[in-house]
Amino acid sequence: MIEKTREYPKEIMILEAIVRRFPPDDFKKAEFEKKLYRKRAGYKGERTLDYFLEQIDHSEMLILHDLRIPVNSTHFQIDTLILTPYFLLIIDSKNYAGTLIFLPEFNQLIRVQNDIEEVFPDPILQTKIQASQLKAFLKKHHITSPPTENLVAISNAQSIIKNPTNDKEVSYRVFRSSNVAFKIPPFYQKHTQFLLSKNDMKKIARLLIKAHESLVPDPKSMNLPFDKLITGVQCPACETFGIVYHQGKWTCKSCGQKSKDAHFQALKDYFLIYGPSITSKQFREFMKVGSPSTAKRLLASMSLTFDGTTKGRIYFPGKSFFD
Hints:
Blueprint: E1 2-4, H1 10-21, H2 29-53, E2 62-71, E3 74-83, E4 88-94, E5 99-103, E6 108-113, E7 116-121, H3 123-140, E8 148-154, E9 160-162, H4 168-173, E10 174-176, H5 180-183, H6 185-190, H7 198-211, E11 244-246, E12 249-251, E13 258-259, H8 263-274, E14 278-279, H9 280-287, H10 292-300, E15 304-307, E16 314-317
Parallel strand pairs: 1-2, 4-8, 5-9, 8-10
Antiparallel strand pairs: 2-3, 3-4, 5-6, 6-7, 11-12, 12-13, 14-16, 15-16
């Protein structure tokens, strides 16, 4: 059973909004585009693993995706955690392209792509650290952790995996995502002692879900040129900014496309970049809507919550606004 699903990361939503509204002639835009590309690739790899996990028998396991658990003054993250009555299993997903060379002696992963070598942290070591942090977290909550196993899933089907030292642990821990159904059964043969009832597993799952804190980066710490970011509503067809609201519809002067709800994405961008609240005046200025009554009507048409009187009202995104 999947106890915690994988949500589309807020971090990616924020980067998408920033890239969408970044001045095209600003040299820093490429930096944010590169970061967005990496984050999307990572998420795609995680979803690839999820796809193959969904095809196996879940009757004896609980699956939790995308955990971020506080520890001391920081957090530890787990891509996928599988709870079984006999053991826990941490799976970290990597979606790197190119040739991947595992060098466990130095705790390194070398990626060679287009004749360029890059060094990445050893993902096997990362999962070991995550297992240790998870054990400490459970101990803090008076739960004795069952044996914890760790795997590294390579989700990019085009990547080449190399283990030049023929290290046994690399061969044991690293696999392609499509092979996950065959990597889990050996752990049941290795760990045969029944340690967790279904209620115990549910208890651990609830504890972790309650402790989970999503990563929400603060755009104010990203050194953005806020005074240069593009405002206005974007055409959903040709992506031109500054389309006009008239007679209940947004109309693009560039391609003629009409839309009733193009302002939804614009308001999402505002919340993601500028913060979790907006006034009617800020809405008018950002959307380039002149009429206060029109702004009020558009704000009322969306799933927003609000505080204050009509004149000083502040609007906030509702629970389902970003779905």
